[in-house]
Amino acid sequence: VRLVESGGGLVQTGGSLRLSCVAYGFTLNTYAMSWYRQVPGKERELVADISSSGQRIDYADSVRGRYTISRDNTKNAVYLQMNNVQNEDAARYFCKAHGGIGRPIYWGQGTQVSVVS
C-alpha cells in the first residue's frame, strides 16, 4: 500500500507545474485526498483537499485561484495543477489519503518543487 507523487521539478516564477499522486495497493474512490507542502524547519501545510466524490474542494488562502486539485478515480490518482507559481510555493509536496474516523491514513514520500526567478 503506497502513494507515489510525481511531477515536481524546477519551475520559473509565474510558470506552471502539474503534480500527480497515484495509489498502489488500494483504491482511492472512498478516500478524501489532500495535498500538503513542507519546507525545512516548518510544519507541513495543507494546500488543497478534495472529497472522495470530488464534489467538495477546499484550498489554502495562499493558493486559491492559482492551484486546482482534481481526481480521477478510474486512474486511482489525484492531481494538483499549479499555475502562476511564486517563490513561496517552493516546498516538498505530499499527498495524503484519509478515509475518515477509524480508517487508515496514507502519505506519499513527496515530490520537490523548486522555483527560480
Characterization of the model:
Helix content is 0%, strand content 53%. It contains no helices and eleven strands. It has strands at residues 2-6, 9-12, 17-24, 32-38, 45-50, 57-59, 67-72, 77-82, 91-98, 105-107, 111-116. Strands 2, 4, 5, 6, 9, 10 and 11 form a seven-stranded mixed beta sheet that branches. A four-stranded antiparallel beta sheet has the order 1-3-8-7, with no helix packed on it. A hairpin with a 6-residue loop joins strand 9 and strand 10. The chain is globular, with a radius of gyration of 13 Å.
**What gross morphology would you assign?**
globular
Rg measurement, Å: 13 Å
Number-wise, the strands total 11
Strand content: over 45%
Please report the distance between the alpha carbons of the first and last residues. 38 Å
User: Describe the biggest sheet?
Assistant: 7 strands, mixed
Structural class: mainly beta
Mean pLDDT: 97
Query: How many individual helices?
Result: 0
Order of helices and strands: EEEEEEEEEEE
Low-confidence stretches: none
